[in-house]
Amino acid sequence: MTPREKVLGFGVGGILLLAACQYTWMKYRDAVAARQARIEALDNQILQARDRLIQGAYADRMMGEYLVRSLPSNLETARADYSRWLYEIITLVDLQDAAVKYVNTIPVRDPNADPAGNLYLRHGFKVSGKTDQRGWIELLHLFHSKDYLHRLTDWSVRPAREGGLAIEMTIDVVGLTAASPDLKSPDYTSPLVDDFDAYAQKIWNRNFFSPPNQPPRFSGETQLTANRGEASLKLTAEDPEKNRLTYAIVGEAPAGLEIDPASGNIRWSPQELGDYRVTVRVSDDGYPSQSTEQSFAIAVVDPPPPPEPEAGPPKFDDSTQTVLTALVQGGGDWTAWMKVRTQGTTLKLKPGDPFEIGRLSGTVVDVNARFVTLEIDGKRFELRPAGNLSEAARAVSNNQGQP
Questions:
Q1: How many domains does the chain have?
Q2: Are residues 40 and 150 both part of a single domain?
């Protein structure tokens, strides 16, 4: 064999060896993967079995509790025992014109059992009568306190014509087929029901004809500012049902501070600067009444200075509409008649009379048949008939002001 053939033989042998190794490795890997998958499948089966055991134990425990609370499996015994108990509770609450009526019994099949087998019997009863408000709540409390497998499927309360309340109850109660035929009724109170006072409070504080009453809410700022000496603050609140609101101080309030119960206006005359706090309660008149409390901080400060009066429009000058209408002589004396047109009046002035017309005020110096001499601010001028007082005064002022 030549060296070349030897090299070729070694190469082929190496390739075959590698292929064999790879095939062996793949078989080993597949076997490990199959084993791991089998282990995981067995683990899942174990977990499922444990879950079924837990569920079964829970179902057994619940079934044990249900068996204690069930009616007897015997139909006649179940009807008699439950009817007797219903008569007992309506006697305890003194239900008037009471009636207990057996309605029917309906078998309920177990879907996981034989089609002919029943899981339980559902018995129907009706109770009716008349009582007062406390009576029907006591009846409900007695019903729910008894730990039977029963429920109210229908319940009505309405005013009776003769007074009081007429009630009607439709009841379903269960008797398991696995229960004893002469099973005794449960002799303990349901752990899910409170004592009567707590139970009744939840019912008396509800309005069955509308949604529950919501408490009012304060609106606006809780940081308020008041002026020293006299303060008037307005607190506002809103009620979701638009009920009437009443405001009241809670606890101690600053001396002299009062609140109007109807409007929420705070009246106060603080004399000292500083920060004060007051708590206010707002209550509505809904059923049942709801209230909300809010604390307000009030800072007492000095009042701001009074605002400067706004400059109003200039007043009309009556002197611009005043004219000399006549010079009248009577008894030897002359009188100047000056008519103020804006006022519809006539002034009758004699020598020595003072006058004030619009912005002009002065004295009558002389009156004669031709003119009247007037003096304003130490300046004398003549005013002739039909002459305008303001124009004459302005003319003399302008003439005397010239060099």
A1: 4
A2: no
